[in-house]
Fold these 2 entries.
Entry 1:
Amino acid sequence: MISVDLNAVGMKGAIAEAAEGKWGMVIDRDICTGCQACVAACAMENNLSFVGEEDAGYGRTQHWIRIERLWEGEYPEVKIDGSFQPMLCQQCGHAPCEPVCPVFATPHSEAEQLNLQVYNRCVGTRYCGNNCPYQVRSFNWRDYHTLPERGNDVNGKMVFSLHNQFNPDVTVRRRGVMEKCTFCIQRIHKAQDKAKSEGREVEDGEFTTACAQACPANAITFGRLDHHESLVSQLAKQERGVKHLEDLNTLPRVTYLKEG
Amino acid sequence: MTVTSNYLSGSEKAHADHHEEEHDPRELLMYDPKPRGEMNDMVMESMYHTTWRFWAVLGILIVVVATCFVYAWGYMISEGLGVAGVMRPAYWGVFLVNTVFWIGISHAGTFISAILRVFKAEFRRPFTRAAELMTTFGLIQAGASIFMHLGRVWLAYWLFPIPNERMLWPNFHSPLMWDLLAITTYVLGSTMYLFLPLIPDLAMARDRSTGWRKTLYKVTALGFRGTEGEWRHLTTAMNFFAFAIIPVMFSVHTIVSWDFAMAMRPGWSSSVFGPYFVLGALHSGMGAVAVVLFIMRATMKHMDYFIRKEHFDALGKLMLIVSMAYAYFFFNDYIVQWYGGDLATDNLLHWLEEGPMAWMFFQMVFFNIVLPWATLWSSKVRQTPWLLAIIGLLINIGMYWERYLIVPVMLTINRMPFTWKLYTPGIEIYLTIGTFATFAVFYMIASRLIPLIPVWEVQEGQMTHTLRKVGKTEVPTVSEFE
């Protein structure tokens, strides 16, 4: 068998790393009920914009995780395809979005082995969004946080009550910037800082992402993929584990457990 | 045996008829010389002579530019791209269509002037300038469209490799970066290539004008007096640029195609996109040249002397050849991808032929391939300027549809069926009208400021072409200039 060291042929500037990665996720499609709790939790945690009915209907939703409902056939004879499919950034080890950015706004973190999005470097060419085979990047089409109709005029000053629920650990993005799921990197850093100050390693299950935390059915599991005894790597190795669009050589870090 | 009143037998008669059909060589510009002074005056007059209609059209166009280009763009910058039609999955929309379209238009200029100059095609002489101006002004529109497309256009300078205190460089792995460098090279190269052959004409204009025009031409002609040494340097430089700009021109549109071909998307990742885009660019560019020549001839004074049926005829032949070459690459792209049978590509191709945009797909095939093939074989069609201009316009519509299908329509179908959604343009429509109006305004102003006919090139050509008397007939002859 011929093996190719992807690091050696990484001429495209993308960093291809060991196939397993560091942080990973397993989503069990068998127990996902499609309740959208993960979507809401993610929006709260990561200061996502509420784009409004019109823009959302037009395909401008600001969701870092979305529940895909798939069906076959036209309306009366609809055949539901089994279950719901939460779709989020797969944190590819060999990500198509990375090399195409002309300003390095979407680099790869070698330490965390995640795809980063640098909001203040992004100029909004949206090439990464096109090149993402999972279509999980969302763009800030407007300044949704300061739309005039969302504010109250208090003595001549615009007050936005929704600003009170912002997570102080996460940037609020302005118009013209691309964004995507970060695997709640603020939580990763918080846990790492705490562990470091206590002089230990981060333990499995010590923290989790907002979506995994909110899932009432426990369909989402997050953790270290490079620790072989961790829950997430045990689940990922199951027989019903599949990775999406694996044939594109993206090395996704999210494993889906298909319906058993 | 009967003696017929006719001297000629059947075959000889046909031969004679054929001779009657042959054109008088004086119908050709090169064999119909005028004295140099008179010709210079004609070009100067075409530049000075304006009617109220010109100013009326220019005024309307300037209003269109102010509203559809300046105001609409400003509004979009202040509101965000939400006012445009772009969304997921069509992150790219009409702005990129316009970019590719205008770069395509700009291609014919260089093609006509550089390649035909290198190959010494005589019919190019009167309209190289008109075509080169299309290159420069088209590229300005292409550049504007790229910047319109950016989410944060006020940070566009981050795309340029400017040294900065944070040691941040642009990503040279990104096709967009190559694109930017290629287009910048092309703008600079083609502008210089436009300027060099303009110098003798500016000097001519300087010697025949007064007032502010005199000052303008004095500065821009760089003190050209037409000495032997100056001509030698100028021809060397022009030769240099003519050869150098050809690979630049090919590379620019190839790199533009790489923006799409390098991406991991069904319909886009095709290895034939480079030459396919180059030919597509030539196709739309040739059509645009026909339209511009028709408008010039119809509206400007003395142009019917310089631009003749022979030029439309030659242009028509070029359009036919380019259309055939385009068809070759078109079918190579679509049929090979279809045969491959990849699921995502299959979905895309079926959607193109029977989805809501099928009308656009079939119109594209009709305008780009069927229409030129069905009409341009006939010399009558080719030699009718208005007919050729209409065909050129329709080819351009077809080519616009082609780019529209490649950018937002192909983006509609991807590997994630949940996100499939059709794009509808928003403010892009106004900005598209704005770029067309800006192009027209630039062209109209340029037609008042610089000689649109490279008069020295025409004169040079006429000097080498003569009618020589051989027996009782005159035979057209050409001598080598160098």
Entry 2:
Amino acid sequence: MHIPFTLQFINLLAALLLLVSFAMLAQRRILSLVNLFAWQGALLALSTFIVAYSSNQHHLYYSAGLTLLLKVLLLPWLLHRLMRKLNVRWDVETLINIPTTMLFGIALVIFAFNLAAPISQLAEGITRGLIGIALACVLLSLLMMLTRRKAVTQVVAFLSLENGLFFAATSATQGMPLVVELGIALDVLVATFIFGIFFFQIRETFDSLDIGHMEKLKDD
Amino acid sequence: MIDLQLLALLLIPLLGGGLLAVFGSRSWAAELNSLMSFLTFAASVVLTVRVIDSGPQVAFSEQFFIDQFNVFLVALTAFVAFTTSLFSRPYMRIEQHHGKLTTGMLHLYYSMYQLFTFAMLIALTTNNMGIVWVAMEAATLTTVLLVSLYRTPASLEAAWKYFILCGVGIALALFGTILLYFAAERVLGQGGTALLWTHLNDVKGELEPTVLKLAFIFLLVGYGTKVGLVPLHSWLPDAHAEGPTPVSAVLSGLLLNVALCAVVRSKVLVDGSLGNHFAGNLMMGFGLLSVLVASFSLFRQKDIKRMFAYSSIEHMGLITFAFGMGGPVATFAGMLHMTVHSLTKSAIFFAVGHAVQKVGTQQMDSIRGMLQVSPTVGWGLALGTFAILGMPPFGVFASEFLIITTAMHEYPWATPILLVSLGVAFAAIFGKMQPIVFGETTAKPLPHPPALVPVFVHLLLVLMLGLYMPPYLADWYRQAAALLG
Amino acid sequence: MENYDLIFAILFQLAQLVVVVLAAPLLTGWVNQCQAWLQNRSGAGVLQPYRVLHKLFHKDAVIAHNASPLFRVTPYIVFGCMWLAAAIIPIIAVDLPFSQAADVIALVGVFAVARVFISLAAMDIGTAFGSLGARREMLVSFLAEPALLMVLFTASMISHSTQLPRIVETLAHHQFVLYPSLAFAALAFIIVLLAENARIPVDNPSTHLELTMIHEAMILEYSARHLALIEWASSLKLFAYISIGIALFVPHGIAEVGHWAGLPLGIVLLLLKLMLAGAGLAVLETVMAKMRIFRAPEFLGTAFLLAVLGLLIHFLLGA
């Protein structure tokens, strides 16, 4: 079976995306986490660009450019700035230790692949299997969100979750309509700003960005 | 013509948001807020009349779609948004007088209030399933800062939880939307039309069932988080209890409905593709679980707003169950229940808001004898409680009755669960509200007269819907129910 | 004609046996020399391992009083195992007579036999260091072995066979395809290689610091010809591992049976690959720092994770 080289390359990028998701899950330092997030964005932009090239969809070039601007340059820059301002460079504290998290992660990947298997069989050509990887990335980000205590990490997890979704949208379906993509990008941007506002409010109120302080609201 | 009417409906709140972003700290900002909400309501009435007269319509090169079902939610949304703006005028002034809010916070509140209305109206009227998602996310973003308006540790925690949980939920919904598009582009081809609901509805029989099944699970879980379905509900009581009362009222009365509307829209497509009752069963399951868990949680509540938040989960569960059953009667009942629940619950929150302001705490143990403090607030609470518990003359009784009788016919096994849950909810809320309304008190009067007109208007409407449903309205609801199948 | 082929195959096999056992110390020497260069030392030359072996073989063996026969035979067993392992890997050519008999699972088994014996021998004398080393060795290999198996399985999935020659044949004589799964497997394999051959960052082959050593702790009681055999076996093991890596991930250019024409090119390419691999290993060891022994499980866990990911991705993408 001859597979076009572009598809092979997208497959490789998808695999790398999954690897970066795992690396983020294993990462203990917030600074490296943000850098990994930027790498994830770069992989995403590259894969979008290749999909645009191979499927000749012009609006995907804009998506790729937007991804590059937003996910690789703007958001990491904003996060770095935030971290400088809030002076958070400490190690990430995890709720479960890293190896256990990794095992959970593998289980999630198997689950995601299983879930996506019937869809992969349907898809022809370029999209085969990519939905499974995208779903796995989404679930891994969810796991990261659940196992981390710091507000900043949760936000990075949230953004990387969005990356997984975006990958599904561009590579698996060859791009949603542009108006939807623009809307999504706008929402993400606004969300990041609101997160930023939150960081300051949380730190003002709790003198820390540890989510552990925020477990007071219970049913009693 | 429809273009213009729709444009008016959408532009007024957007304009309001813009104006209030500039003039939000003036002394007349509250009046401007009410005015804009009133204009939105007027536009919605015009649009509603038009749609009921001439059937479903598309506008702006099919990007918007209005039928009897969503125009009903548009009218309800605009109406409750308007009455809530009336209520919030004196309420927020009293809060400011108590030193809980500053002018800057009010500024934020007014502009976000209008933008929130705008986002909800977009989510309701758009034909594009992708834009539904964008608008739902925008609705979260506009309210999240309102939940943390008081800047107390508890309100920050609630807002953070709300943001993260709904963010995650809505992300799953996006994945569902992507899968939907994935299935649709194989039938409709690449490009803009593959996410338009009307187009999808036309070809729903050809959509790939395996993909749609998975897509619906994601959509239900995603938007279900926003509806507050158990087990994804944990943000809801916090956000309702810690945010300002008008925000609780619109969250409970409107946002949950809008999210449910998105679920129902997806269900129509999935039903068409699968040809079985998969989506309905899933919704019924989530609905029943929500009703059950929420009604038993009511007993443990000490905070009055939390308690009514759980009551909202219970009622949303009931509505989800009704839509899950499907069929003209159940869908009709679900829509009726949506209406009466929105009206009643917002009325209760208005009354509760003033009661809490009088006493200065949300702890139910400390709120006593509201009838003595202020007969209007007391009666508002008492009647609201009666209404939400489904006492006979009120509309909630009619819709619950319809839902339960349909369930007896179609799914007899579900009836005991529903009856037990409703009984438990009745006992819990009634037991807790009785001393609050009738007990002895030491509370002081308020610095501004409370605005209780909205409370009684809402309750009157609910009463009317319980006693007599105008044929025009019944016909409208029947048409909408027929559209959903 | 067929007899002719068989004779050549046997000749190839014999050649490989001899070449492997002779060349293994050379590879170790090359790695050490590269390291020396990277550390700005002049180094002892690539032939140093031979000199060490020569020296050790001419010394008298000293053996503890309480040593059992197990202790004495272990060096021979370990050496034999490693030689056998190196013999069944298709290094110079595909389809050697020996390699028909053994596949990748057997290969892992052969390594395991050697490990069991060396650990038992380490505990045989009853010194503290021996037991400590054996325990650590078991910890490391307990984590590395599943990862190695996963790597081998990934390659087997692609070629639908657990026979190394078949795997090599499929991968080498195939149209060029990007295998994301193999990329993951390669990363995992490098980590396993570092751990199993007692290299930095898991172990340090050139130190006798009690706190950190693993392999050296186990062979502390050996001297003279026994030590020489064990050192030689270590070289063979490194050679075998690098050869497996080459066979799995860059097999291009390997000669087929009876292909006289392909042989010179194959040998040149092989030499080049070995030199590059050795230099790469030296670079890796130079840039990495020895990690605490308690971090080793995490490091090897990463290898396992990567290998499993590779396998899963193969399932999903079929590539």
